Every structure is written in structure tokens, then in C-alpha cells.
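Appendix B. Extra example for self-study. Work through it before the problem class; the solution is given directly after the inputs so you can check yourself.
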Amino acid sequence: MSNIFSNFFRKASRRETLEAVALISIAVAFNMTFGYFSAFFAVYLSFFEWDYIGPMKFVGLKNYELMVKDLLEGAMGASYLITPFFTGLKNILLYTAIVVPVQTFLAIVLAVLANQKIKGIQFFKVSYFLPATTCPVIVSLIFVWLFMKKGFINYALSFVTPGFQPDWLNDKNYVLMAMALVAIWGTSGHFFVSFLAALQAIPKEVYEAAMLDGAGPIRRFLYITIPLLRPMVTYAVVMGLIGALQMFDLAWVMAGSGGGPGGSGYTIAMDIYNEAFTKLRPGVAAAKSMFLFAIIFTTTYIYQKKYGGVIR
Amino acid sequence: MRIKQVIWLAFTFMVLVCFAFIYLMPFLRSAVAAFMTWEQASKYPPEWIPDPFTLENFEKLFRLKFFPRWILNSAVYAGIIVAGNVIFTSMAGYAFARLRFPARDALFSALQALMMIPGFVTLVPNYIIIYKLGLVDNIIGLAILGIVNVSSIFLMRQYFLSLPEDIFEAARLDGCGPIKTFFYIALPLAKPAVGAVAVYQFLGAWNAFLGPLVFLRSPENFTLPVGLSFAFQRTMWVEYTPIIAGSLIASLPTIVLFVTLNKYLIRGIVVTGGKS
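Solution. C-alpha cells for the complete assembly:
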């Protein structure tokens, strides 16, 4: 009797395995090829010199050496034209340092404000989120026009800060700032919606208890809201870091593929693209992409370790 | 106390309205400027009402030889991506959520780990693979890279896990095999998840830039974002209004989609973002 049953189950489970393999095969095959195979191939490639056509030549760590030399020379103050990687790194770190804190903070503040008995909350959600669903390249094209010297943004600024009328995209001190503003405009709405949902999930009783204990609104915000929001803050910061460190589209359109005035809009991602597809040095591009991966991995890792808890 | 509260609420409302204005302003500006002459659109201080009202920006745009092709290419690309993801990730998501087979969890973790690898690492090797397959400068070559997205598998799996076990148990006891169960029971129940995957993938494909920029080489194969950014760089327009009009056309599908489906989309983003 038990024999028949175990036989039945073995057959059933063999069938289940077979059919499961059939169901997942395409998904797994594609992701193994374009994900894992490509990732390992990128590591392999970073030790070779190649021009896509001729034979691959093993060069050891030469590609990495090139990269480090670029960084060192850049740090010594060489011109941006000979140290594109250093320029890109410097810019993207500055850009990330502006974008991630500002967009996260803005999203939290707006979410806290919106988390009250206010009419038309859906309208605010939709209008704040709309930039996040629009193509970054299209957004940048529109902002190129808005950021012109005699453009709409300078007009709007003339009411807030009279006399401050930079030529945003042609002044090397402001290109990166302009891109950061567009990025904040484009992504903060996404995090606003996430934070609002997290806030709405906090039970009212917690606040009522704090109120009974005599905690004012600011204390309630600092000691209840912020700690309870922490997992969401971690999520927003990590996603923000990953997005900002790889920024490409905005710079490509707003600063141009060359990186804008004085290379002030050049990013690491653009440098990887240029190495691979204009200078035709895929080995160097692969080495640089390893570096980009390392920065993204360490920053997000450190952040999670330090402030995070687990993201589920 | 009461008055203080009213003032606070009024203040909050003001701030929120101001920000709504900031977020919507570029859309409003381009919506009016698309119907202006460049002479008027570049005026300082800015004007709001098109005078004369003109459609010549759109005419100029469609006089560009490839502009209709770009729209078509974007649609084809987004269509393939959406179809591929809906079909393959629902199958995989179901198998990972509901079937038992060796190394299931290890395989799924391996797929999930792929989400941590930045696109720039795999970009060059993928280009080489597609190049060797002879599919560079071909929408198909570009599309197969994104046809089974890991985040879609994740979303599908999450949804199938949330369905009650009883249904699947009943099907199994009735002798319904896994694949049959998938087509007759799981898939019809998964419409919300399929819809979510379809919409996210559509937005992603329609808005994609880096992939199309790298893998599509000749102007007649460009998608809208690449085409527009090239039109903007290459010809150095004396007038910018046709670009604005083009941007408006390119962003219209995503805007319409988002505004009509906003309730579901926002909920979905919250679920996939924070809690799942």
C-alpha cells in the first residue's frame, strides 16, 4: 500500500520537476546569458585589449592601471581632457551627494504634510508622480529649453532671487546643479508616494499615546515618525544611490555627449559608454564598469550596514 | 487651538499646491509652447497663450523623414517587451511560487541577485553577444535583452504566493498537472499582476534610452527618445519648438496611461517598493 503511494508521489514529483523546468527554462536561460554570463565576461574582458574585430590580447592589469593613472593624475589637477574618468567620478559623487539627500528629505517632508486630513490627496499624488513616469530624455529636452538664459526657470527665479540669472547649461559652475535639480524633480515624487504609504501604515494609537505623554508635534516627528520610517528611508536612499551613481540620460542630453563646458557635466557612465563605443576599447570600458559596480556596491552596503536594518 | 490647526492646515495646503505647480509646470509650459511660434515661445517674460495659434511645429516634425518610423519603432519595441515579459515571467513566477523542484530557491536567489548588478557592467558583453548574433541595429536584438525581466518574475512570484494554497491543492487532487493548472487556474487569477507587469514594462520600454542608443545604429531604426535626442543634437535647430512638440507626442502615451490608471499604478509601486 505505502509502496503504491510513494510510487505515485515520485511520479508526480518527477512530472512536476519536468513541467517546472519547462516553465522556467526561457526566463532562466535569458537571465543566465545576459546577466551572469555577461557579468563574468565583463570581468574576463577587463584583462584584455581588444577592438571588437581582431584577436583579444591578454594585458593583465593594464586596463586597471590606465584607470588608476587617470584618477591619480586627475587628483593632481590635470586637465579634464586627459582625465575623463576622474572628472566623471568627481562629478557623479558631487551630483549624488546633492540629489540623494535632497530628494529623500523633500519626499519625507511632503509626505508628512500630505498625511493629514486634506482634500484632493489623489491629485497631489498624481501630479507629484507624473515626472517619474515620463521619459528622462524627454524631460531633459524640455528642461534644456526651460534652463535657457532667457528661459522660464530664470524668469521664475527673478521673483525669488533677483539678480541671480546664471546661463545654466553653458556655465561650468551650474551644469551639474541643473542636472541635479531635474533629477530631484523627476524622482522625488516616486519616493513621496512610498513615504506617504509608509506613514499611513503607522497606527494612530502610537501618536495618541505620545500626545497623552505631552509630546509636541516636532518631538512626535523626530521620535516617532522618523524612526518608524527608517526602513523606507533606507529603501529610498539605496534606490536613490543606485540611480544617481549610474546617471547617464540627463547628462547625455543636458550637457551633451562631450560632457558640457569644461567637462562639468561628464559622468562615469558616459565615460564607460565612450570607452566602449567611441574609443572602441571594450576592455577599458569593462574595467571602469567594475569600478562603478564597486562604488555602488560599497556605498549601498555601508549605508545599509550603518543605518539600515533589512530591506525586504 | 482650533484656529492654530486651521492655519496649519491652510499652510500645508498652500505648500502642497505650490509643489504640485512645480511638478506640473514643465508639462504645462510645453503643452502651450508646442502650439506657439519659436519667436513667441522664447519671449522673456514668458507668454502663456499661443498667439498666433499654430500647428507648424507638428508639421515640421512630421516633415522629418523618420519621425513616424520612430513612433512605430518605439511601439514595436514596447510591444515585444510587454508580450515577452507577460508570457515568460508569469510562467516562471508561477513555477517559482507554486511548484516544487530541486534547487528552486537557490535558482530564484540567483536570479534575484542579478538585480544588484548595474546595467553598465553587462552592457559591453551584451553588445558583443548581440553583435555576434548579427542583431545589432535591429529592434529584435535590442528587445531580447529585456524580454524576461527579473523584477517582473519577482512581482509575478509574489502574486502567486499570495493566492490561497487550497486552489492549487484542489487542482492537484483532481489530477490536473502543473502546466494545465497554470493555464486554467493560475493565469486567469493573475490578471492584476499581469496588468502591473505589462504597464511597468511598457513604461520602461517606451522611456528606455541607453539600450536603444547602443544597439540601434541607423536613424530609421531609432526609437523616439533616441531619435529626438539626435534630432536635437545633429541639426542644431534654430527653433526649439518642434522639439517641444515632439517631446509632447513622445510623452503623451505615458501621461495618458498614468493618469487613467493612477490608482492601480501608485498602489502597485508602493507594494513592490516597500513591503513586498
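Self-check: The two ends of chain A are 45 Å apart (CA to CA). If your reasoning did not lead you there, revisit section 3.
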